[in-house]
Amino acid sequence: MIFGKHSVLFSYLALALFLLLAKSSVAQDKISLITWADFNYTYNKFNKLGIGGDMGMRGIISKPNWGLVYVRPTLKYHFTPFIQVSGALGLFQTFQSDPSDMFEMRLAQEGKAEWPSFNNFYFIHRLRFEERFLFYNQADVVDNFDNQQQNFRFRYMLSVRSNYFKITNRAEYLYLIAGAEYFFPLGSNVDERFFNASRLSAGFGQELKLDWNYQVDLIWQRSRNTLEGNFTTDEFIIRLRVYFEQYKKEKDE
Q1: Is residue 253 part of a domain?
Q2: 62: alpha, beta or left, given left = phi > 0 and alpha = psi -120 to 50?
Q3: How many domains does the chain have?
Q4: 49-82: per-residue pLDDT in tens?
Q5: The whole model's pTM is what?
Q6: pLDDT digits (tens, 9 = 90+) for 96-122
Q7: Structural domain for 184, as ranges
Q8: Percent of the chain that is helix, strand, coil (3-state, to 5)
């Protein structure tokens, strides 16, 4: 019954997983597996304004020669329950050997819309513009990298998410989600050695009691090598996201 109600979404998820597995079978020497973990907090005030952000780590456990930690305060405004805009200031610290460790300050402006909506699933559009300021601990003399760099990019993500469904009394308020995201750097000169090109994801989530929920995604990420000009890096990512969302309580009059 569940598969019947969400047949379109299950087909989307099956296609995403097929592409991930197909890619792994032809490029085993270029694949790495990375774990991401994120905590997201939002305090909603007056049902329109949301204050919070997210923080997390990437690759610390799964990739000993590379790791990242970050914190990103965010301000959101809901025009309607289905349309919102937001602004964020992200601080990212990357630990790596080639090039050297890097600190990034990232400004982001984002628009998000949920449309169209059907009986059992709906689509999510997200457009984000980022201004990135990169600071390396030391110059990469070999490749003539500067200690301080900056670049700008657009990101567009299209996702499809199911409505909540139930399998058992314990496994309820579940949902499925799949999406594709593309990165568009601005300008012909991109200073980073590797920059993201695209992400394909498939996952599931569950809304828990007391304003908590979680989501687990399998992501295939492609990055471009700016020195060689080809897509040379394929990464599989297992991402765990935990959400805590609060709403302002009405004061007793």
Answers
A1: no
A2: alpha
A3: 1
A4: 999 999 999 997 777 788 999 999 999 999 999 9
A5: 0.84
A6: 876 688 999 999 999 999 999 999 999
A7: 2-247
A8: 10, 65, 25
